[in-house]
Amino acid sequence: MTITLHGIGIGGGIAIGRAHLVSHTDLEVAHYEITDAEVPAEIARFDAAVRLTRKELEQLWGSIPENAPTELGAFLSLHVMLLNDHTISREPRDIIQAQHCNAEWALKLQQDRLLEQFDVIEEEYLRERRADVIQVVERIFKALNGEGGGHYVPPEDSKERILVAHDLSPADMVLFKEAEFAAFLTDVGGPTSHTAILARSLDIPSVLALHHARQLIREDETLIVDGTAGVAIIDPSETILTEYRKRQAGYAADRKKLRGLKTTTAKTLDGTAIELHANIEMPGDVEQALANGATGVGLYRSEFLFLGRDDLPDEDEQYASYKAVIEGMKGAPVTIRTIDLGRDKMPKWAEGEIISAANPALGLTGVRLCLAEPHMFRTQLRALLRAGRHGKLKLLVPMLANLAEVNQVLFHVEQAKEGLREDGIEFSDLVEIGGMIEVPGAAITVGHFLKKLDFVSIGTNDLIQYTLAVDRGDDSVSHLYDPFHPAVLHLIAHVIKTADQANVPVSVCGEMAGDVRLTPLLLALGLRRFSMHPAQLLNVKQIILSCDLQKLGALRPMLEQAADADQVREMLNEVVA
């Protein structure tokens, strides 16, 4: 019987293949008492399981293939960090000592305590790290039960298979390195989960948050995965298969056509040139950016250098990373965002200051953390200024909310320059300083910012979330997170218009920049610089090549009258059609 499941679509395209199930059955945890004399041996058994788990993770970390997504190493590093944290590696020992219970039960009690804490966290990214705790603890359970160290053997026809699991950990992804699956399906996961990020990096059509897919699907069962629509079809009829094979062929033809646009200049029908830049996380992402025709890097998220480690990267390590990106882009402009840690990215060394906040998204994050930690910020600025000698570097400051923050940032930049001069270290004095407009207050008063900054970049992800008071990671309200909302568009239009009048470059580097549904709308609002994930570049370029700015100009006065997002969509369809 044909069954259709709906979830979160990750990665475009359609995959048709047979199911390959990966089992992660919940372990039955025994509970029994031990004597005083048995406590030391039980603690030793727990310690041995932790050591074995650490060894396995480190071995997997060291065996990551060169062509693997750069995020994979960071994710495995996070699991090692969690394992080394005292809440997992030490506190179960105290429970064994206090309650005279077996190691498995002590570990289960500690896991339950940790998960209760994660359940009350509002921020999406932090809440999804709950899954990381479960995955790490599961590996310790297996080690306690003598099940550690298993080697995964992929099916010979993995390229024709669709991997189905309740969840996939970073360690699983390394074990699956020998296989190139056609798609992934998981019961859990959100848009910022590891599986989602890796699926995007691999450009594999996948669907997450299907809830009961692992229970409903049988091994070798025929599946259709539509990563664009977020649909998985179990045991499709021949009629459905025929229809999706046509769609799959059409998608493949479109992709082939898109690859031919790599060297085509992004211009509208009336000849207006549009800049298309890439968002990247690691130096290794430069290759993908260039392969998709990026004419620059509009957002290099430098904070990924600071994640998955117990200490801060020093100046020389940062300099080497920034230099690699700048040189890799071969003279094209590179915009590097200063450290943006906090609400959705939590390094171990900052946990005490940030994770304790009741609402991390409104706490010590972005530029606020940089200004609160001047030594950390000054070290990064020195590394950036040094790297600026190797190409066209722009420095982007996140989450600015008031002019005082801009003035403080500029002060720190000058202090960093003075320090480099005193140390006799060469640097560039021509690095441009820009600010991210992602707080509604900054968008409204952007005119004052433009007097101090060389450029601005609109971070639409947070701008939408803060403007509409919607946590897009909360299933109960995520449908209200809508980039078509008139309030969001009014703010974006105001920033673009004000920047143009001041002759200051403005770009969009949030998810809206890579959403082809919004490309004509952003062009109509006056946007001429887009920055997005490399995989989205050619799709957006294709839309740009078919747009007539004179025709789209009719949208701007219409949008001023729109009462809600549905009206905006109707107006856009009317003009574009």
Strand order across the biggest sheet? 1-8-7-3-4-5-6-2
Structural class call reads alpha/beta
Outline type: globular
Number of discrete helical segments: 26
Tell me the helix content.
Answer: 40-55%
Mean pLDDT: 86
The unreliable regions are: 352-356
| Biggest sheet layout | 8 strands, mixed
Tell me the radius of gyration: 25 Å
Number of beta-strand segments: 16
Strand residue content = 5-15%
The termini sit apart by 39 Å
Please summarize what this structure is.
The protein has 26 helices and 16 strands. The chain is α/β, with parallel strands linked by helices and 577 residues long. Helix 1 runs antiparallel to helix 2 and helix 16 crosses helix 17.
Model description:
The structure is a single chain. The chain is α/β, with parallel strands linked by helices and 577 residues long. The protein has 26 helices and 16 strands. The strands form two sheets. An eight-stranded mixed sheet has the order 1-8-7-3-4-5-6-2. It has an eight-stranded parallel sheet with strand order 15-14-13-12-11-10-9-16. Helix 2 (71-84) packs across helix 7 and helix 16 packs across helix 17 (403-423). The longest helix has 24 residues, at 39-62. It starts with a strand and ends with a helix.
